[in-house]
Amino acid sequence: MPIRAKMGVPMHIDDLIAAAPLERAAATPLFRQLYARLKEAILHGRLAPGTRLPATRELARQLQVSRQTVLAAYEQLTAEGYLRGGVGQGTFVDASLPAARPAPDPAGTAPGMPRPLPARGLAMASSMARVRHHQGPLRAFRPSMPGLDLFPFDVWRKLEAQHWRRRELPLGYGAAAGYPLLRELLCAYLNASRGVRCTPEQIIVTTGSQQALYLLAQLLLAPGEGVWLESPGYQGAAAPFEVAGARMCLVPVDAEGMDVAHAAAHHPDAAMVFATPSHQLPLGVTMSLGRRLELLRWAEAKRAWIVEDDYDSEYRYTGPPLASLQSLDRAGCVIYVGTLSKVLFPGLRLGYVVAPPALVEPLTQAKAVVDRHSPVVPQAVLADFIQQGHFARHIRRTRDAYAERRGAMMEALASRLGGMLASGPADTGLDVCARITGPLGEAEAVARALAAGVDLRPLSYYVHPQAGPACAAPPGMLLGFSAFTPAEIRAGVARLAQALAP
């Protein structure tokens, strides 16, 4: 039976199905396949509004399927508003549907996108493109990766199972600022270990520190306002500020950390500073006390915010962890951001912000806009993990293990690559910054290492694309040691030495 379009162009059901025949061996039921073909034809105008469809028996005979298959497809299309009709009336494409028209493709619009992305959308879609994410199996010397072999996953599973058995987990919506007990425990931990001065009410739990930076950028920066960023530095930090439309104010780093005097001279009107005073990535330096006080004085005078990213300072191998920059703040301008990815495991995706009192309510409301609240179950399990002493034991255990692994790395680099690489500061964190001192350039050295199966990052990767010569990185590479046993480290250094050999 022919199906005639409203404009008088004949269309046969045979032609319609022939273009995309039913697949009898497919996992999708036949009625769902027929439903999809007819729906597609209606949406694209091949079956115009008002078109009469064949009777169910006739179409079943043509398709050599059961009548129930056709009935089920028609019923689904009728329920969704594509068809109308009834017993004795026939079945029609609903005449009230608008006729399909091919949409024009404006210049610069991606296929399938009705209009180009606005500037903010383009920034959001592209700002993380240069950030490399860990992929594939773990290999020496993947940087910034905790030792998952040391985490007590059995303990974690038992704690989570206990919650499910007791059925005490808060499975409804939670507080935007986070699980109250976890906030209390994090407050006590930060007071004792990092010198952070705060109350539990000042802590907002986030879905990782990346979300914390995004929230702060959106909340505190107007388009065009400047942000001081270390270069070389963590490239993932630049992305949220770029999406907010901020102006990138790149600041060089020397042996004392961020060059505050340089930044104040070249970018005096900035509204925010992003800094890693306890352990700079990738150079590994610690900001001197003089620089810290200089930065605080500048921020107070300019009424600027300082975002202190304290991502792995629990791991200091030549003494106790240093006090935070926040502990020196008397003007309420420092926002302390922490993460649990480096001390526990990255897949947990929990971080936190210690906000100055005046910022707590606005930041909490901003958090609610983005995702209402971070997942409650992991927060509750983490609270038990901390409260029962597992967290403190884990940090002590990993600090000892990482110290051993760091020692193995430094010894192997000195003995096998002493004439080619010079290790930078490595008294904190999970990585070693190794500057190239031999004849090889960075690009060739890194290419050789990667070809030999050594996972690393060139120092040039950490330089922002807008950086000038003053903010360049020395030729070198970042090598992670925390995720590998001493034996794996020695074997990896041997491969690296062979790869870099003349």
The main pleated sheet reads as: 7 strands, mixed
The CATH H-level superfamily of the largest domain is Type I PLP-dependent aspartate aminotransferase-like (Major domain)
Number of strands: 18
Helical residue percent band: 40-55%
Strand content: 5-15%
Helices, by number, come to 16
Assembly of the depicted chains: single chain
Highest CATH level, the class of the largest domain: Alpha Beta
How many structural domains are formed by the residues?
3
Strand order of the largest sheet: 6-14-13-12-11-7-8
User: Ends: how far apart?
Assistant: 79 Å
Give the helices and strands, then pairings:
Layout: E1 2-4, E2 10-12, H1 13-19, H2 30-43, E3 52-53, H3 56-63, H4 67-79, E4 83-86, E5 90-93, H5 119-126, H6 153-166, H7 180-194, E6 203-206, H8 208-220, E7 226-230, H9 235-243, E8 247-251, E9 253-254, E10 257-258, H10 260-266, E11 272-275, H11 289-302, E12 305-310, E13 334-339, E14 351-354, H12 357-371, H13 376-387, H14 390-417, E15 421-423, E16 431-436, H15 442-451, E17 457-458, E18 476-480, H16 486-500
Parallel strand pairs: 7-8, 7-11, 11-12, 12-13
Antiparallel strand pairs: 1-2, 3-5, 4-5, 6-14, 9-10, 13-14, 15-16, 16-18, 17-18
Helix pairs in contact: 2-4, 3-4, 5-9, 6-13, 7-13, 8-9, 14-16, 15-16
